[in-house]
Design brief:
alpha+beta; 5-stranded antiparallel beta sheet; 20 strands; elongated
Length: 359
């Protein structure tokens, strides 16, 4: 019997202009997404943004109003959920409490009429793969949360899915166990060449597990890119604010760059008309404190500081009332609360400028 590594490679997923409506509410608004063979794409966004709706539509649990879902170029829109060869791992694991671990993993195989020695061998192979071979006869209640998650993963892989769908799979685990399972999913995904979609609201999880991230809001994808791309080059103010920590500095554009309302002139390349109101988004690590005034530095009052290892996370307030957060190396004593200093862009900083919008 060929092993999973030989049978789970090479599948692509395409979602084309997918629209889902509930009554008068549009849950997905013409969403398009292509996932390459062997790629993990994370759907990231706040509650209600449409990420789980997209996942469940791909799985066949929700019927779209319009649009197309294809695997390897072939539409699966007319197939019921149980014939789409899509494996799903749910947040709550959805294990059958009255069944053993082995029977839970074999459930999908039995539903397809596969029984006997071949099915038993497949179950044993998968349990060894997820390091649960010795627990095959236990019930789910006798397992830890991480072990239950491994059973759910083995059950999803048993049917040799074309696509693996992960719906908030680590949400119920504590932090250390969550990290272990993220590494386990990534290991198996790489080992088997799986194509997978991960739904999460945890940006750290998306950044660590996914090859690309689709940041969603209000039923649409705001940006699709690698973790580095969406962090360093956010496409919209929403992405800039949702991924990582972002400072927002009101400014006015000039021919040479921008003039901050906080009181400094910065040389920045941009394409906005001169004299436009704008918003400069700057990551905490892109700011630095200086002791002296300069044309490209602006005065700030030092706020709370929290030492984190070799760095200090510092809050400061500009003269126009704008609150900022920055990181700086922790060298010696932390400067006192209420002292004055000057803030500037750190060397190599590449902040993002957006046109001003009313919020």
């Amino acid at each position: 019997m060929p092993g999973p590594a030989a049978t789970l490679r090479g599948h692509t997923l395409d979602v084309d202009a997918l629209t889902v409506r509930y009554g008068g509410f549009t849950a997905l608004d013409a969403v398009s997404l292509s996932v390459a063979a062997g790629e993990v794409v994370a759907l990231l966004g706040p509650s209600g943004c449409g990420k789980t709706t997209l996942l469940r539509t791909v799985a066949g649990f929700i019927t779209q109003a319009s649009g197309r879902v294809s695997i390897d170029g072939t539409s699966i829109d007319d197939l019921p959920a149980n014939r789409r060869r899509v494996g799903i791992v749910f947040q709550n694991y959805a294990l059958f409490p009255h069944m053993s671990v082995a029977d839970n993993v074999a459930y999908g195989l039995h539903a397809r009429g596969e029984k006997g020695p071949k099915a038993a061998a497949r179950v044993a192979e998968l349990l060894e793969m997820v390091q649960l071979g010795a627990l095959a006869q236990r019930r789910p209640a006798q397992l830890s949360g991480g072990q239950q998650q491994r059973v759910a993963l083995a059950r999803a892989l048993a049917i040799e899915p074309s696509i693996l769908l992960l719906d908030e799979p680590f949400a119920a685990l504590d932090r250390s166990l969550r990290l272990d399972m993220q590494m386990e999913i990534k290991r198996l995904q790489r080992q088997l060449g799986l194509t997978a979609i991960l739904v999460t609201h945890d940006q750290d999880e998306a950044m660590s597990v996914a090859d690309r991230i689709a940041v969603m809001q209000r039923g649409r994808i705001d940006q699709l890119g690698t973790p580095v791309e969406v962090y360093d080059h956010p496409a919209t103010p929403f992405v800039a604010g949702f991924i990582g920590t972002t400072n927002r500095l009101p400014c006015t554009t000039t021919a040479e760059g921008v003039t901050l309302h906080a009181g400094a002139a910065l040389a920045l390349a941009h394409s906005l008309p001169t004299g436009s109101r704008a918003m400069l988004t700057v990551r905490p690590e892109q700011l630095a404190l200086a002791s002296e005034a300069a044309p490209d530095a602006w005065p700030v009052e030092l706020g709370l500081a929290v030492p984190l290892g070799g760095q200090t996370v510092r809050e400061v307030r500009c003269t126009d009332g704008t609150a900022l957060r920055l990181t700086e190396p922790r060298r010696g004593a932390i400067r006192e609360l209420g002292a004055t200093a000057h803030c500037r862009l750190a060397p190599g900083a590449n902040p993002t400028l957006f046109p001003h919008t009313e919020e």
